[in-house]
Fold this sequence. Notes:
- The protein has 4 helices and 4 strands; from the N terminus they run αβαβαββα.
- It is an alpha+beta fold.
- Strands 2-1-3-4 form a 4-stranded mixed β-sheet, with helices on one face.
- Strand 1, helix 2 (27-39) and strand 2 form a beta-alpha-beta unit.
- Helix 2 (27-39) packs parallel to helix 4 (89-101).
- It is globular.
- It starts with a helix and ends in a 7-residue tail after the last helix.
- The mean pLDDT is 83.
Amino acid sequence: xxxxxxxxxxxxxxxxxxxxxxxxxxxxxxxxxxxxxxxxxxxxxxxxxxxxxxxxxxxxxxxxxxxxxxxxxxxxxxxxxxxxxxxxxxxxxxxxxxxxxxxxxxxx
Length: 108
């Protein structure tokens, strides 16, 4: 059995979060996402400028992000899933749990 099969938090992923369109209320959502990434030994979070053409961000509605499963060496192993708006702590926790389980369609 692979280590990933035993511990879903060892599943590698890259999470890209638009921070240009966030407001102060989104900081608690960012905290949940940061903790989720830190809890995964191969999770990476990238904060970026607005990716409106890809994420269709809307200021004041919550955070927008994209997540992609990958190998430990960062090679993509699946499709990119767009996320958002991630407007509440509950939304962010759903994203975190879905990312761990690789059930990315559930949060997209």
